[in-house]
């Protein structure tokens, strides 16, 4: 069958190749991949800047954001042929660490976890794959191909989960959330903020294209300037850009008791001049919290399914707004001005 594979660490090494059917040892459930989403991590892997091949191999099957259809499942798996499923990306480390041992592999402490399509286990960008049922999350059929948004939504569901756990340290009645970056992750964070009936503000540098309208149609407010003013009113900030200066401006502007979740990965290498002493003083005196968040465990995938099931389906279609067939996968690696999330479609619904 066809698969999109790459030699991690080597730029321009991605191509479609014929691979064997998935081995039965890789899981009792056989899944037909319908589509995979392309995100920044995929582009980094294709550029040779990230990713690890499975042990004793030099190529990795790409794709970690997925929606598929069950072809075969054992009777006791809780799944049946025809069910739509998303594959869980991270698998626990073999030791396992204290967190992986209880299914909280998103909090792995020893770094020995594996990740589908990223780190040492083949991904989903192939016609069929196998999985243990424990690493599949059932999606409502009504989500259709937009079920591919389950994985990116799970990442932001974890961010919300941890924000709310931290908020529970005291009496906490948040009203305003600021989200920086209106890419797919920021937009999904805004969607979940509106589902919590919060006043949602989204800041991004662009002033045209689909992002302002997508934000407005959530009942949220779009901004392209004014970070300090916006942060000064935010009970919660979800930072999705990883831009160092923006992070500093947020942390030095938020009001007392604010919770800031850093969910964007910085490219690094850029130095900013900043007064961390003054920042420290205000964070201490205001009980401010800043924390990083990455990945998701099964609970967060289930939260993501619920959030997407409640969302306006037409709005989700505007997020997953470009589809290319597998043979034209290369078209999915370039972003046009109107693209939000590009999918590689492997099969029809
Ligand atoms: Zn672990």
Structure characterization notes:
25% of the residues lie in helices and 23% in strands. It is an alpha/beta fold. It has two domains: 172 residues, Quinone Oxidoreductase, Chain A, domain 1 (Alpha-Beta Complex); 139 residues, Rossmann fold, CATH 3.40.50. Helix 3 links the parallel strand 12 and strand 13. The longest helix has 18 residues. The two termini are 19 Å apart. The mean pLDDT is 97. It binds zinc ion.
Please render the helix and strand layout as text.
Layout: E1 2-6, E2 15-18, E3 29-38, H1 40-46, E4 60-61, E5 65-72, E6 84-87, E7 90-91, E8 114-116, E9 120-121, E10 128-131, E11 136-139, H2 150-167, E12 176-180, H3 184-195, E13 199-203, H4 211-216, E14 221-223, H5 227-231, E15 236-239, H6 244-251, E16 259-262, H7 276-285, E17 289-292, H8 298-310, H9 313-319, E18 322-325, E19 342-345
Parallel strand pairs: 8-9, 12-13, 12-15, 13-14, 15-16, 16-17, 18-19
Antiparallel strand pairs: 1-2, 1-4, 3-5, 3-10, 3-19, 5-6, 6-11, 7-8
The structure holds zinc ion.
Zinc ion binds at residues 92-93, 96-97, 99-100, 108-110, 113.
CATH class of the largest domain: Alpha Beta
Poorly predicted residue ranges: none
Given the helix and strand composition, which structural class is it?
alpha/beta
- The name of the CATH topology of the largest domain is Quinone Oxidoreductase, Chain A, domain 1
What portion of the residues fall into strands of 2 or more residues? 15-25%
- Spell out the helices and strands N to C: EEEHEEEEEEEEHEHEHEHEHEHEHHEE
Domains counted in the coordinates: how many? 2
Q: Which ions and ligands are bound to the chains?
A: zinc ion
């Amino acid at each position: 069958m066809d698969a999109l594979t790459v030699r991690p660490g080597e730029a321009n090494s991605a191509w479609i190749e014929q691979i064997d059917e998935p081995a039965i040892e890789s899981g009792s459930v056989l899944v037909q991949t319908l589509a995979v989403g392309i995100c920044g991590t995929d582009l980094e892997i294709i550029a040779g800047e990230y990713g690890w091949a499975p042990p004793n191999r030099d190529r990795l099957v790409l794709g970690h954001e997925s929606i598929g259809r069950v072809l075969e499942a054992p009777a006791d798996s809780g799944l049946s042929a025809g069910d739509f499923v998303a594959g869980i990306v991270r698998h626990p480390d073999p030791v396992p660490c204290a967190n992986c041992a209880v299914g909280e592999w998103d909090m792995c402490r020893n770094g020995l976890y594996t990740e589908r399509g990223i780190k040492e286990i083949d991904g989903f960008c192939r016609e069929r794959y196998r999985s243990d049922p424990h690493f599949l999350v059932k999606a409502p059929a009504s989500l259709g191909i937009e079920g591919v948004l389950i994985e990116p939504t799970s990442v932001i569901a974890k961010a919300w989960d941890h924000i709310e756990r931290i908020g529970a340290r005291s009496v906490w009645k948040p009203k305003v959330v600021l989200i920086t970056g209106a890419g797919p992750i920021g937009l999904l964070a805004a969607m979940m903020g509106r589902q919590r009936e919060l006043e949602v503000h989204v800041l991004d540098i662009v002033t045209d294209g689909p992002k302002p309208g997508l934000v407005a149609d959530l009942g949220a407010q779009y901004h392209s300037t004014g970070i300090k003013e916006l942060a000064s009113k935010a009970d919660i900030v979800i930072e999705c850009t990883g831009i160092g200066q923006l992070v500093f401006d947020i942390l030095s502007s938020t009001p007392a008791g604010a919770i800031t979740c850093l969910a964007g990965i910085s490219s690094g290498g850029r130095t900013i001049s900043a007064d961390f002493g003054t920042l420290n003083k205000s964070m201490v005196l205001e009980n401010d919290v800043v924390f990083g968040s990455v990945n998701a465990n099964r609970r967060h995938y289930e939260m993501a399914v619920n959030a997407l099931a409640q969302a306006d389906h037409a709005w989700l279609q505007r997020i997953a707004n470009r589809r290319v067939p597998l043979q034209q996968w290369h078209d999915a690696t370039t972003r046009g001005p109107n693209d939000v999330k590009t999918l590689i479609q492997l099969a029809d619904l």
